[in-house]
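Appendix C reproduces, verbatim, an entry submitted by the partner laboratory led by Prof. M.T., so that reviewers can inspect both the input and the predicted structure.
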Amino acid sequence: MPVDYQKLGEALLSAGLTGKAVNDYSRTEVDALVRACIEALIPDKGAKFSLPYISDAGDLVIPFDADPRFHYWKPCGQSIFETLRELGASKEVWSKYVNDPNEPF
């Protein structure tokens, strides 16, 4: 997969990751490095990601090959709430994923 090296270099500079050995990075710096690398990848033209969806049982399903922005469990992913909003989740589905009743629907 091709890499946008200029974008990668700019991200590494802005995160302060240049000029020190990788094994000296803190956990936060490693997360920033991984995020910069992921964001610098240029997807192949015509390549398509699978879309997340809500199953008939009302479960949020995020396929393995979904756009990484939907991977809410990773530092580079958007929140599960944003994904539910994008999918137009019903109040019933929303309540499965929200512990706080004051969380905006």
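Residues 81 and 103 are 9 Å apart (CA to CA). Additional entries are available on request from the coordinating office.
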